[in-house]
Amino acid sequence: MTSTVQDVQDFAVEWWGRIAAGFRQGPALDAPAIELVLILLAALMLSVPRPMWRYFGLFVTVVHELGHAFAALTTGRIVTGIHLRFDHSGAMISRGSGKAAAAWTGFWGYPVPAVVGAALVWAAFNGWSSLALSVSAVLLLVTLLFIRNVQGAVIAVGLAIVSELMVFFAPPVFLGHATLAIGIALLVGAVRDWLNVVSVHTRRRQLLGNSDAYILSRRTGLPSGVWLAGFALVIAASCAVAAGTAWSAVGQLAFPV
Predict the structure, then answer these.
(1) Is 19 inside a domain boundary?
(2) Is residue 23 part of a domain?
(3) What is the number of structural domains in the chain?
(4) DSSP bridge pairs for 235
(5) Which residues contact residue 66 at a Cβ distance below 8 angstroms, ignoring those fewer than 6 apart?
(6) Do the Cβ atoms of 133 and 166 come closer than 8 Å?
(7) CA separation (Å) from 73 to 70, 115, 126, 139?
(8) pLDDT tens digits for 92-139?
């Protein structure tokens, strides 16, 4: 028994040591053009083909719901649960008062994968890939505390395992590539989800009850189109920031001063 406890303690110490090691700036992504093209193709393979989207889309859903949760916390609301499902739907449950707080919380779902994607692109090109991995690993473990359904538990545990395996085994040279690929895939996923919710409002109106824009419209009185446009604005700005970061970094790689 004592040996088992010691093994757990040793593992915890090693895990935290690897997590803490990520909170330092490392070398920026330095890849030739052909590698950058391959990273872009890998990102598109994660987020475009239907078979791959079936799985990567679950990660986008988790980021979506964590966006709601973080927004709720910034207003003083209390997060009581997160539900995730295999069909890429989900829900974040929070308690608190105030229409403005509820609207703020409801808004930050669809745009957040794009915001996180842009942040990951920036991290990859500026030497913070290990920080992105460490923060993601911790957040996914914390998320487990708020999951309230079986499908959500399976999704969250699976993502947490993948994240922790990367913390322990991913070589440093791989981190920049992986961070950039995931960042681009999240940006594409955000656009894909936005197009999907637009189609709900235009062609599949029987599903309106699941749309954040529709729920926000009911709560605030503002038309759903206003909220859809707000989502689009943040997603477009995130894509522009990511593209600007990549363009600047690639220019420096191609034309060093």
Answers:
(1) no
(2) no
(3) 1
(4) none
(5) 82, 112, 139, 143
(6) yes
(7) 5, 18, 29, 14
(8) 999 988 889 999 999 999 999 999 999 999 999 998 888 888 888 888
